[in-house]
């Protein structure tokens, strides 16, 4: 049996949070710094670490590990308070639950996440839409780990390799995501990238970024299985 590692992006790949994340980000930023976050780049594909340190720098606030930790704590708590809004305004993307279930029945497949969300909010969001059960959150790469997405992919591979005693690499690892950042982060680690055009990036954008395969959505479970498991 050959071990495979499937690393899912969360936002706009498995679910939509209805814009609540960016609202909570701004509220948490104000609570922690006393200032408005100002203009923020699009959250798609970026990590919470990157977004927060970028906003601090833009506001002329010194970055410190203590401030980052406090922000993540406040952000997670405030997001939890808004979970009813996430459920009301967001949704699981079509086919996401079926795809997770399908991979769970494939021998040797481990499923985790590489996400810009910090670990607490990654679990919270997926749980709200019934998508958490198939994911191993003890491994994975999270927005609290680093500002660079490729680093999150590397950490996810290292953590899974240690936890499962399997040297995951190359075609045995697949990142599934909706942005060019997901594709670039995968290829920086020499692993496969499946693009899903359910975010702001079009199929053409994801192909141009170098995606090995691009799917319009996760709706066709067989197509998702073929795209992810094909390591030829
Ligand atoms: Mg995404």
TrEMBL record:
InterPro entries: HAD-like_hydrolase_sf (IPR050155), HAD-like_sf (IPR036412), HAD_sf (IPR023214), PGP-like_dom2 (IPR023198)
Pfam families recorded: Hydrolase_like
PANTHER family, A to Z: PHOSPHOGLYCOLATE PHOSPHATASE
Protein name: Haloacid dehalogenase-like hydrolase
Organism: Luedemannella helvata
Classification of source organism: Bacteria, Bacillati, Actinomycetota, Actinomycetes, Micromonosporales
């Amino acid at each position: 049996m050959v071990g495979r590692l499937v690393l899912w992006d969360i936002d706009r790949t498995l679910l939509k949070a209805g814009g609540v994340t960016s609202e909570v980000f701004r509220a948490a930023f104000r609570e922690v710094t006393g200032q408005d976050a100002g203009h923020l780049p699009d959250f798609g594909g970026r990590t919470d670490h990157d977004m927060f340190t970028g906003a601090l720098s833009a506001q002329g606030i010194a970055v410190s590990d203590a401030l980052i930790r406090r922000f993540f704590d406040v952000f997670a708590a405030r997001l939890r308070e808004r979970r009813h809004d996430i459920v009301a305004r967001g949704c699981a993307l079509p086919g996401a639950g079926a795809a997770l279930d399908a991979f769970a029945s494939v021998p040797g497949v481990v499923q985790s996440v590489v996400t810009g969300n910090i670990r607490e909010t990654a679990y919270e969001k997926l749980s709200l839409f019934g998508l958490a059960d198939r994911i191993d959150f003890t491994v994975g790469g999270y927005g609290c780990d680093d500002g660079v997405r490729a680093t999150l992919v590397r950490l996810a591979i290292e953590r899974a390799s240690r936890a499962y005693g399997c040297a995951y690499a190359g075609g045995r690892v697949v990142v599934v995501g909706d942005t060019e950042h997901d594709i670039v982060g995968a290829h920086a680690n020499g692993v496969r990238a499946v693009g899903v055009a359910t975010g702001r990036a079009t199929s053409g954008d994801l192909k141009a970024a170098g995606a090995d395969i691009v799917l319009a959505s996760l709706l066709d479970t067989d197509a998702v299985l073929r795209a992810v498991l094909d390591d030829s």
